[in-house]
TrEMBL record:
Binding site for substrate: R79, G80, G81, D82, V83, T84, F85, H86, A147, I148, G149, G160, L161, A162
Pfam families for the chain: LplA-B_cat
Pathway(s) per entry: Protein modification; protein lipoylation via endogenous pathway; protein N(6)-(lipoyl)lysine from octanoyl-[acyl-carrier-protein]: step 1/2
HAMAP family linked: LipB
Species of origin: Castilleja foliolosa
Keyword Ligase: yes
Protein name: lipoyl(octanoyl) transferase
Domain BPL/LPL catalytic: 34-218
Family stated for the protein in its record: Belongs to the LipB family.
Superkingdom of the organism of origin: Eukaryota
Gene: LIP2_2
CDD domains, alphabetized: LipB
SUPFAM superfamilies in alphabetical order: Class II aaRS and biotin synthetases
Assigned EC number: 2.3.1.181
Gene Ontology molecular function terms on file: ligase activity; lipoyl(octanoyl) transferase activity
Amino acid sequence: MRVHRKLEIWKMGTVNYSQALKLQEKLMSDRKTHKITDTLLSLQHPPTYTLGKRRTDHNILIPESELQSMGAQLHYTQRGGDVTFHGPHQAILYPIISLREIGLGARKYVEKLELTMIELASLYGLKACAGQRGETGVWVGPRKIGAIGVRISSGITSHGLAFNVNPDLNYFRHIVPCGIADKEVTSLQKEVNDMLLSEDVVTEQLVSCFVRTFDYSDVVCKDASSISLDE
């Protein structure tokens, strides 16, 4: 018998990273106390570099002042993983879900995030796969197309995944992406080398892949106009 799983999807458009961080903290607290159901934030950020809890500052290759002069922000977080970049034309998903309620451990959860992006890539004829040991995220050959960095607190997840639809890949030149020095970063647009469907459609496809991979049967959507960042 299929377990009934409910997911609320928040389609948020472009959100400042610090605002998204505060919102995740609030939603995590609400999820722990069962005030809300599992929730998925679908959004983009202005140009932003983030570091995980290991604080690997040495993988940022230029001073923070130069990042700021480029119009990019730098944020320190409590997620796992190394330094990464978030920006326009990336599809970002932040799941706030209870792993205990869906019976997943941390490793299996990350594998399902990888499968979500692998399925999206397959829709465009790309054979993507999870990285080798120590290479988090999703890869097309030796090129990274999707990043993963998660936080789990009391069985509740935050942060999540970022899939490169068509971001400016030059931003990745200023860091050692995810701490892996000898591999390139790529995008769906670069790999497909053809006219993509609209970015909104690709993001919707990614969300649909997430819903299928995590086997949600009851899905409710909220769009940006009905969402307050102070909720």
